[in-house]
């Protein structure tokens, strides 16, 4: 099955555009289908924190998380909030979510699988950025995690498992942190630097550049919303859209949080949910970190972008249609000012930008990468949760390998869509 195929890729986010580049490299003809502009503000890729964190191998659910669920239901502004009105619909997903992290052994199994997917991601992205003519947008200069104390680090299951899967880091005491980050609040007394990791200086611009690279390499882009997939027996014949059919003989479902309807159209009811995320960005701030960092006490990433200082984090379970709760963005802003006391408190509102979007998430913290049950002409590549941007580089390669009938470069059993069916 190495012949050239006409591949329709549904979704022009990070996963979709990298899949397009890699499918073109394999000799396939590619049509990208997306109602929005690649890298536009409507896309999850646009609002990403900007970390290319090859060490992000720990799923959101860890042992004992179930004890915190009542608090999440009571606190609409906490790091993980669940809207009461959406709880009945989200409950099956939430139960699977909690069970996936019920034991340390389950979390460890997930960590090993994610390490395979994310290892060397900053290098892969650097090569893609160079190909797309935007090498300056990807930097491989490490990221920092900061903690109020050494004890907060030592007691963290995630770091024990990162060591087990081969992640290495440099440890910093309070004085060493002050030398590197003089503007950081003194409540942080311990830090680690993961030197293998990288960052993206403008996720939206990066995805847009990758899309342009795919188009320059021969891909087509159709601005329309896909609604389903059309089969004849076990053969794919078209992607259904709001304006008609797009004939093709292979398809990739990489439509992010809106992939669920598409998989259901061919008999795969997969438990995809949106983890709604927010970011706040200060244009031209007078203070801030010298490096990209995550603060453990507020579960927030702070990253310099070409547009300003971005703070991103928190999760809200409330579905695709509910209006944003902008107080969650205010919490991020307040945390940013708390972390960096030298930031002026009178920054004009016009220089503070907020964003809201949808992370596509499977309940076990692992994306779906593999064939549809109904047809091997259909490849699923979605559900990356918090690792969509960093995971897109290898996911696109895996998609191309599946389309061409080649042996995938990593084991795909942990990511098989059939694990839920």
From TrEMBL:
InterPro entries: FAD-dep_OxRdtase, FAD/NAD-bd_sf. It is an enzyme of class 1 (oxidoreductase). Its EC number is 1.4.5.1. It comes from Bradyrhizobium japonicum. GO terms for molecular function: D-amino-acid dehydrogenase activity. The keyword Oxidoreductase applies. This is D-amino-acid dehydrogenase. Transmembrane segments: none annotated. Keywords: Oxidoreductase. The keyword Plastid does not apply. Residues 6-402 form the FAD dependent oxidoreductase domain. The lineage of its organism: Bacteria, Pseudomonadati, Pseudomonadota, Alphaproteobacteria, Hyphomicrobiales.
């Amino acid at each position: 099955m190495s012949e050239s195929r006409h591949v329709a890729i549904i979704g022009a986010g990070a996963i979709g555009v990298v899949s397009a580049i890699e499918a073109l490299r394999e000799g396939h003809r590619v049509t990208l289908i997306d109602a929005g502009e690649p890298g536009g503000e409507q896309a999850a890729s646009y609002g990403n924190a900007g970390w290319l964190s090859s060490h992000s191998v720990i799923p959101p659910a860890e042992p004992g998380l179930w004890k915190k669920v009542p608090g999440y239901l009571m606190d609409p502004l906490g790091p993980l909030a669940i809207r009461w009105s959406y709880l009945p619909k989200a409950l099956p997903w939430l139960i699977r979510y909690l069970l996936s992290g019920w034991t340390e052994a389950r979390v460890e199994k997930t960590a090993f699988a994610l390490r395979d997917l994310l290892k060397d991601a900053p290098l892969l992205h650097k090569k893609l950025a160079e190909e797309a003519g935007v090498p300056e947008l990807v930097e491989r200069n490490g990221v920092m995690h900061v903690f109020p104390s050494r004890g907060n680090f030592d007691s963290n299951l995630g770091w024990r498992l990162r060591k087990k899967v081969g992640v290495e880091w440099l440890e910093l005491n309070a004085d060493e942190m002050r030398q590197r980050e003089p503007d950081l609040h003194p409540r942080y007394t311990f830090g680690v630097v993961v030197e293998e990791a990288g960052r993206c200086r403008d996720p939206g611009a990066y995805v847009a550049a990758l899309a342009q690279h795919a188009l320059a390499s021969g891909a087509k882009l159709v601005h329309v919303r896909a609604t389903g997939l059309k089969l004849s027996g076990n053969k794919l014949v078209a992607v259904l859209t709001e304006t008609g059919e797009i004939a093709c003989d292979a398809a990739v479902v990489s439509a992010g949080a809106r992939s669920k309807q598409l998989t259901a159209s061919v008999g795969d009811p997969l438990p995809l949910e949106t983890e709604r995320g927010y970011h706040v960005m200060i244009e031209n701030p007078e203070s801030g970190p010298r490096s990209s960092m995550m603060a453990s006490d507020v579960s927030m990433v702070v990253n310099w972008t070409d547009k300003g200082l971005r703070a991103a984090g928190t999760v809200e379970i409330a579905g695709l249609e509910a209006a944003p709760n902008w107080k969650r963005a205010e919490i991020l802003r307040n945390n940013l000012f708390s972390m960096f006391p030298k930031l002026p408190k009178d920054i004009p509102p016009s220089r503070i930008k907020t964003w809201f979007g949808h992370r596509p998430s499977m309940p076990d913290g692992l994306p779906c990468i593999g064939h549809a049950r109904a047809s091997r002409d259909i490849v699923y590549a979605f559900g990356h949760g918090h690792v969509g941007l960093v995971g897109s580089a290898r996911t696109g390669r895996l998609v191309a390998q599946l389309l061409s009938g080649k042996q995938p470069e990593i084991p795909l059993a942990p990511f098989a869509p059939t694990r839920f069916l």
